[in-house]
Amino acid sequence: MFKRSDEALIKQALKGSKSAWEGLVKRYESGIYNYAYRMVNHPDDAMDLMQDIFIAVFRNLSSFRGDSPFKGWLFKIAHYRCIEYYRKKKPLQSIDDTPEQEDESEESCPEYDLTQGQENKALHLAMQRLPFNQKLMVEMKFFQHFTFEDIANQLGISTNTAKSRLYSALDKLKDYLEVEDVAA
C-alpha cells in the first residue's frame, strides 16, 4: 500500500476530506505529543497542547504555502504553542528560568516511550533541567531530526546561534548525567 504525501493529504483536507485530515493527524500525533511532553513534562498538559496544536493547524491549513516541508510548519506552530503554555503558566517568569519540574510516574503516561528504562529516564530528567531554549534545541535536533538550517529558519535565529544553543545544552546535559551517574 502506498503512503500519500503530506501535500496530497493537505489538498484533500482543504477540499473537506475528513479522512485526509485524520491521516495528517495520525501521521504526526505521536511526534507532536512526545514533543509537547518533553517540553512541558506533564502528560495532561501535553495532551491539551497537542489538541491545541492540531486545532491551530486545522484553522490555518489554508495558509500553508508549501515553501518548506509540512513537518517544519507543524512544529513551528507547536513551538509557539509551547511558548504560550509557558507564558500562561508562569506569566512573571522568563521561559529560560523555568525551574526543574517533578518527574511524572511512568504509570501516568504509559504510551510515552521516553520514560521507560533507567537511561532514558535519566535523560528525560536532565532535559527538564535545561532552560527552555536549550531544551527546544535538543528536541528539534535529536528527536525531530531537523537540520540546523531548519531550526534557524523556524526560530528566526542564525544557524550559528542554533549550533551554539545546542552545544551549550549538550554540555549541560553531559554534566547533569555525570552527576546522576556519580549519585547512583
What does this structure look like?
The protein is mainly α and about 180 residues long. It has one domain (about 5-184): RNA polymerase sigma factor, region 2, helix turn helix motif (Rna Polymerase Sigma Factor, Chain: A), CATH 1.10.1740.10. The protein has helices at about 5-15, 20-40, 45-60, 70-90, 120-130, 130-145, 150-155, 160-184. Residues about 90-115 have low confidence and may be disordered. Keywords: DNA-binding, Sigma factor, Transcription, Transcription regulation. One of its GO terms (molecular function) is DNA binding.
Total beta strand runs:
0
Number of helices: 8
The CATH homologous superfamily corresponds to: RNA polymerase sigma factor, region 2, helix turn helix motif
Number of domains: 1
Determine the oligomeric state from the structure: single chain
Q: What's the SSE pattern?
A: HHHHHHHH
Beta content: under 5%
Family: Belongs to the sigma-70 factor family. ECF subfamily.
Keywords: DNA-binding, Sigma factor, Transcription, Transcription regulation
Protein name: Sigma-70 family RNA polymerase sigma factor
InterPro entries: RNA_pol_sigma-70-like, RNA_pol_sigma-70_dom, RNA_pol_sigma70_r2, RNA_pol_sigma70_r4_t2, RNA_pol_sigma_r2, RNA_pol_sigma_r3/r4-like, WH-like_DNA-bd_sf
Secondary-structure topology with pairs:
Blueprint: H1 6-14, H2 18-40, H3 43-60, H4 70-89, H5 118-129, H6 132-143, H7 148-155, H8 159-183
